[in-house]
Amino acid sequence: MIDEFCGQRGDRVLFVGEGNFSFSLALAKLALDKDRLNQWTSTCYESKPVSEKASENAAALKGLGVSVAFGVDATKIDGNYDRVVFMFPHVGGKMKIQKNRRLLRHFSASAATAIADSDGGRVVVTLCAGQGGTDRELAPRSSEADTWQIVKMMADSGLQLVDAKPLASTVAEMLPDYASFGYRSLDKGFHTENAVVHVFALNSFDGGLDFVQKRLKLLSRERRTCEVAVRLATLLGPDFEVDADHDEGHGAPDLKRYKGTTIPRVLLSFDFSLELGSNPVKVFVLTRKVLGSLKKACAEGDVTAYNATEHCFDSFDESWQEMWTELPSVSPASYSHDLSFWSREDLAIADLRKLVWLRCGDFVSSFEVIDDTFVGADSRRSYTVRIVYKTHAFALGPETAYDLHRKHLGAALVDKFGVELR
């Protein structure tokens, strides 16, 4: 847990919103390597120490080699860091959910810029019980509307939630010298039981590839860091080739097509007739070795095709999205949007579904045609589709989701079918 806040040796660590400086001081006292502390900076928003204890703690940090600064706004971070830590952010006062969401959103933009040049940079935010609104809460609130929606607030800056865990049953168990500060803007502590530590990495939408090409790239020799690639490399060794076998029915591959090609070889079979959100990929392995643990699909000469999907990948259907992701999201948010358009041709639902799979399969969890009955005076038919956006592959915030909805999927519909968006 300590490493979530401190990072690795040599990491430039910035603490913002420290108040009385007791948290960063408690961590500094635990550091086994005191030389790393000269890469730490501890700051507070106030222009001067908030209490005598805060002044003492700031002096103690300086004595350990930590830089200390006052009057630092967490939404306007200056400098480059490997880790930015914000413990229990709050605008002050009571019942100000919207203002606290805004604080997170503005902080995320600043923090994302601060770690932009870091290899493996992280932003760490700890919130009180129930505030974050993720499925990692030990004491969840009854409705997402009653939370700060931390995943959504951080995501439009490209910050993806990659871990979330309890701070401790009480903070005192981990950091006995830490004393929370700022209850109702006073020099008083607050309850930290069941607090959750949220860890974010910078991972925004990169413009994307279609669904098939993305998987081929993930299995290419230059990548192979997602779980599917790791397991295949364990089974076959590093020297395997990859092909997309476009079999819409998930049947056994036609080995004659691969006669004379490099073996071992991985074939990916896709079934885009399935509902969005379900697993459309089957993985076949072509090898000359006998793989007794796998189910044979077919054989041709000395080459056997094995269906590796069920046997190599436990719970593949349930967790397939995470297994195809290099840095899986934790508790990803979802967004529902409707899209209406006119078409001069009657469109088959299967064709619409396949397009959504190919262009948006990595970030759409549900697709439904909710209206296709109205025909206008010019004989054009009106369609309305409802799409739920959700992904484990990158940071998906409200603005990003809407841009993908209109500019990515909407543009694909226009390009493929010649429709007119309404």
Notes on the protein architecture:
Helices cover 27% and strands 22% of the residues. It is of the alpha/beta class. The longest helix has 20 residues, at 398-417. The mean pLDDT is 89. The chain has helices at 2-6, 22-30, 52-63, 97-114, 150-155, 171-174, 211-218, 227-236, 309-312, 316-323, 349-360, 398-417; strands at residues 13-16, 40-43, 67-69, 83-87, 122-127, 159-166, 196-202, 241-245, 265-270, 281-287, 295-300, 303-307, 335-343, 364-371, 381-389, 420-421. The chain is globular. The chain folds into 3 domains: 2-202, Rossmann fold, CATH 3.40.50; 211-323, no CATH class; 335-421, Alpha-Beta Plaits (2-Layer Sandwich), CATH 3.30.70.380. The chain has a 7-stranded mixed β-sheet, with helices on both faces. A 5-stranded mixed β-sheet has the order 8-9-10-12-11. A 4-stranded antiparallel β-sheet has the order 14-15-13-16, with helices on one face. 40% of the residues are buried. The two termini are 50 Å apart. Helix 2 runs parallel beside helix 3 (52-63).
Name a few traits of the molecule.
422 residues, alpha/beta, Rossmann fold, Alpha-Beta Plaits, five-stranded mixed sheet, 16 strands
Number of strands: 16
Tally of discrete structural domains: 3
Order of SSEs: HEHEHEEHEHEHEHHEEEEEHHEHEEHE
Widest sheet, order of strands: 3-2-1-4-5-7-6
Bin the strand percentage. 15-25%
